[in-house]
Amino acid sequence: MDLDLARQLSQENDTKIVLFVMDGLGGLPHPGTGRSELETAHTTRLDMLAKESLCGFTLPVGIGITPGSGPGHLALFGYDPLVYNIGRGVLEAVGIDFDLQPADVAARGNFCTIDDRGLITDRRAGRISTERCAELTEDLRKIDLDGAELFVEPVREHRFVLVLRGDGLTDAVADTDPQKEGVPVPEASSTSAEGDATAALAGKFAKEAKEYLADKAPANQLLLRGFAKRPSWPSMADVFRLRPAAIAHYPMYRGLAKLVGMETLDVGPNIEDSVATLKENWDKFDYFFVHYKYTDSAGEDGDFRRKVQKLEEVDAAIRGIVEMDPDVLMIGGDHSTPAIMAGHSWHPVPFMMRARNTRADACGRFSERALQDGSLGTIPAKEVLPLAMAHAGRLAKYGA
After folding, report:
1. What span, in angstroms and rounded, lies between the C-alpha atoms of 369 and 345?
2. Is-contact 14 284, C-beta < 8 A?
3. 3-class SS at 165?
4. Is domain 3-86+233-391 in CATH 3.40.720.10, yes or no?
């Protein structure tokens, strides 16, 4: 369903829809056991939900395509990620409530660690503290760029935002983050002739930052990616006739939610905080996006056991959401992050939807192997919101 058709068919009522996203949910079998993270975890409540749900997998972008978190979430919100895509810089900037102007160019930054040969040994600088990140960014703001105003803002842990403000800037700048280790940090370059001037500014910033960070190990270098300008997209309220809210602690996901018109609610870092915020705001909204980050963090760190523990943490807390008795409860992920790969992957993502007026399927557990028996099969992630809308009675009949 495209947004024009969604706008035509969507209708308001008093039903409640909850989308619970376990970031990086999907996994792969551990070589020693042959079981994935979901198959290893004790998830009694999630398994019980699976027996009451429509089950299967979602495909965030397309077959064989490894998605970033932005496209993965936008698809779940009902936006075709091949049409609506945005660089990571805007998401981080908007997520921390930075006053991003239409002509600004933003990039996501990572503090990282390089060895004495200049090779990246840790793309996240050991996940330095947010406090240390703030100290480093404060000094990086002192870099003077002739031709643009510079903003450097801390986000969380090793992440920061670089914003360039000036005349004639473009986002036609290539990433300086190779997204792998054991290689040198690329120099800033343009992706077209119109980006030459902006790439030169980014390159000067990176060069001077490298000199300053040289003795600041583990954060002794930085990476930049996702150069972008802020887009103007149709809102979920306009397209789907929803009053949507986001319960997300990490700035990037708050930024994504804001770009599609969700109200972002203040929430603490723990899943119990998310459940409490959901309950406190239950009567104010009819669509809730609830985000859980730590399954992805564990997967990216290659920590199979910790990802299992985080899945069990979700299982213990999910009862609080079920007790709210939403008309539609969707549980899934934005992409797969198998711990054995220590990164995002192209594999379809586990998904289930509990709602009224459904047909029971054969899935008996919330795990990759069991979900293969689900009635949904593998569907494009952009179709889950229309599916939820239908089960919530929020889509009118099409045609005579």
Report:
1. 17
2. no
3. strand
4. yes
